[in-house]
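G., the chain you wanted modeled:
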Amino acid sequence: MSKETEYKFLVRDESFKPMATGSSRIEQGYISRKKEGTVRVRLRGNEGFLTVKGPNEGATRDEWEYQIPAADAREMLARVCDDGKIEKTRWIVPYGGLTWEVDEFHGRLAGLTVAEVELPHPGMALAAEAIPPFAGENVTGNPRYYNSNL
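Predicted structure as tokens:
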């Protein structure tokens, strides 16, 4: 088991794009969305992942992630995930000594862009100087912005 400490912010503008070192298209769906934990399947390019996440305790939660064959991820997305699949482009943005992931949503969530940063040590605090200028309102812990609720 591993723990993740992750902060999430709404994005103010597209100034992150020229700062990005790469991007990838992601499709994901949920097999389970219980408050006690979620089970997600994700297809990123030609890679598939199955992820189990425990409930949030502030900015920290348990997380288990496993790479699976892309063909299995495609089948799960088509056959066992509930409605409400998510499509997004993930931009990788280094800033303040950290790696920010900026998710630009598509389809029914078009117009929503969220920046997340996972800190290297569980329970670590996010320093103000490590927050990029494109990061707006801090929505860490706001269930409205959990991917499983989108």
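The longest strand covers residues 22-34.

Shout if anything looks off.
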